[in-house]
TrEMBL record:
It comes from Fumia xinanensis. Multidrug efflux pump. This is Probable multidrug resistance protein NorM. Keywords: Antiport, Cell membrane, Ion transport, Membrane, Transmembrane, Transmembrane helix, Transport. The chain crosses the membrane at residues 54-80, 92-114, 134-158, 165-186, 192-214, 316-342, 362-378, 385-405, 411-434. GO terms for biological process: monoatomic ion transport. Signal peptide: none annotated. It holds the Pfam family MatE. It is found in: Cell membrane. GO terms for cellular component: plasma membrane. Belongs to the multi antimicrobial extrusion (MATE) (TC 2.A.66.1) family. The keyword Transmembrane helix applies. One of its GO terms (molecular function) is antiporter activity. CDD domains: MATE_yoeA_like.
Amino acid sequence: MQKDLTAGPITKTMLAFAGPMIAGNLLQQFYNIADSFVVGQFVGPDALAAVGSAYTLMTFLTSILIGLCMGSGAIFSFYFGKNEPAKMKSRVQAAFLLIGGISVFINILAFLFLDGILRLLQVPEELFAMMRSYVFLILFGIFFIFLYNFFAFLLRALGNSVAPLWFLGSTVVLNVGLDVLFVVGFRWGIEGAAVATVLSQMISGIGIAAYTFIKEPSLRFGKNFFRCEKGAAPEILRFSLASSAQQSVMNFGVLMVQGLVNSFGPQVMAAFAAAVKIDSFAYMPAQEFANAYSLFISQNFGAGKEERIRRGTKSAFGISLSYCAVISVLVFILAKFLMMIFISPENREIIQIGVGYLRVEGAFYCGIGLLFLLYGYFRGINRPVMSLVLTVISLGTRVALAYLLAPLPQIGVWGIWWAVPIGWALADITGLAVMGGFAKRRTTAGA
């Protein structure tokens, strides 16, 4: 099912397209929360700390692939908007070969250097063996993560945001069920959570690939699969590497912060693991709405509809910032209750640390919501390098301030927390200034 985003009511079209994407990621975040809940309640705070730290590592590794898929999705959407199916198919084949090969390479490197990576993360000795066992198993799912995201971004580029939702929803339900079975029923501990995740990722990746080839026969890989159109591979690399760099730089910064958090010990690690899950769940709808907005921009950019881009941008900013303002108030007020979803009430110090994090981040969700929109805008108008620049500003500020302030006894972990919204603000100011310049030049050129 394809959907043309270049026609119809703007706000209604964007919301209808974004709805399944948001629902899908809410389901994904629900799984992450359920996973942490099962591990935290039935294995213990140390296991929660290990899973939380491992989640940050895996997010970094998979962000490289997700960024590549996201960048290629913008190209697919561009050629779909231009109504050039032959060029689109050649880009799909080139992207699959390139990104698939990169996923295998990353997987091999991660297995080879696993111990060294965990040492760099300053994982406490009492958690090292547990975390290593969990990560070793989770790494087997990397290729399936590539499969799911590649075909999900391909289907979304065609305007089909519903099918990825169904596959994600089904596998999330399976994942939670297997979590309960393996961790609570079979008492496999943290390894059971890892096995449940990998099995679910395998079903999701293979399933959505099969669905795509059944529903979109024109995109099936033929006998010329390994012979791409001249210029297709360089174009894919130009877009995808920029998006991948943006995603990986962002998550590498988070990984560096995780290493700093780990240096404060298991209690801070456990608090951070739980609070980040809540944080991600809270602002995720703004992130997915921005991804939908980006594809809206990309299709209309390909079709040359500048006025529709302008009106869509105004509508998107109003929707996203309104949502972020409301969710900021809710997280700030409910921070303690939200922490107790993961942490037993008797662990008061862990809860208190997490509440501090949430009340700093929660007050400034409009900053990250705006930044997500700026990322989407620059990807949509074929300026993915600008998204990377904004990420470097945001994460560079965050990491630098965190490492500067956290060692000071009178500041400690609060320096890590406050570095985040300051980084968002600097990137937002820069992005808005550049966005205004781009829009002005395009308006002048069109006049």
